[in-house]
Design a protein that fits this description.
Elements (H helix, E strand, L loop, with lengths): L1 E2 L11 E6 L7 E7 L2 E2 L1 H7 L4 E4 L12 E8 L14 E8 L7 E6 L4 E5 L3 E10 L4 E6 L6 E2 L4 E9 L3 E9 L2 E11 L9
Parallel strand pairs: 9-15
Antiparallel strand pairs: 1-5, 2-3, 2-6, 4-5, 6-7, 8-10, 10-13, 11-12, 11-14, 14-15
């Protein structure tokens, strides 16, 4: 964050533009904000009034582990000056942000993970939890009974009666990557045992 004001309109808020990977004209406009913060120190130092402080949050585009140059421009309150270079550069630097972690998916059958042995005709609950940030989760099943988008960060669905082996999978995608987890149900034979 920082502060800025237009000498022609000292009591008015102005726009602030943040550019990534180059200044205005060559960089990418990453975000814009406005000087909505009260800065008593600035007002006292320059004998002015109004709000002149600004802040901005680091956008997702910066969070890739790569160093990005950043350029901050104050936008002149008079649009007639924009084409004449009237939006001064008030700050520059570079930042490197680690990418966010990938989601961590846990899918279970009644709380059991991996391969689960069940009786013929069993019923149970698929239960899932997702750690870290996920933007979407999609289900699939070899039996076709677990499909579509699923709730984040937790959820459950009742299944059964189960008459055949099947695999349930939940795949989640987030800004930091993707992850999936599966439960394999192995159904005991329904053939009765005959003894002589």
């Amino acid at each position: 964050g920082g502060w800025s004001f237009d000498p022609d309109t000292t009591s008015s808020e102005i726009a602030i533009h943040v550019y990534r990977d180059g200044p205005a004209g060559s960089g990418i406009l990453d975000q814009s904000t406005t000087t909505t913060g009260l800065r008593d120190d600035v007002n006292a130092a320059y004998g002015i009034s109004g709000n002149h402080g600004f802040t901005f949050t680091t956008s997702q585009a910066f969070k890739d582990g790569v160093e990005h140059p950043v350029y901050v421009h104050a936008i002149n309150s008079n649009p007639d000056t924009w084409s004449l270079g009237g939006n001064p550069l008030i700050g520059s630097g570079s930042i490197t942000c680690s990418p966010p972690p990938a989601p961590v998916v846990d899918l279970s059958w009644n709380g059991s993970d991996g391969t689960v042995n069940v009786s013929f005709g069993a019923t149970g609950n698929l239960i899932w939890t997702i750690q870290e940030t996920a933007t979407s989760c999609t289900a699939s099943s070899t039996a076709g009974d677990f499909t579509g988008s699923k709730s984040i960060p937790t959820g459950s669905e009742s299944k059964g009666p189960v008459a055949s082996n099947r695999t349930y999978t939940l795949t989640c995608i987030g800004p930091g990557g993707s992850d999936d987890d599966s439960v394999n149900l192995v159904v005991a034979s329904s053939t009765p045992t005959v003894s002589n």
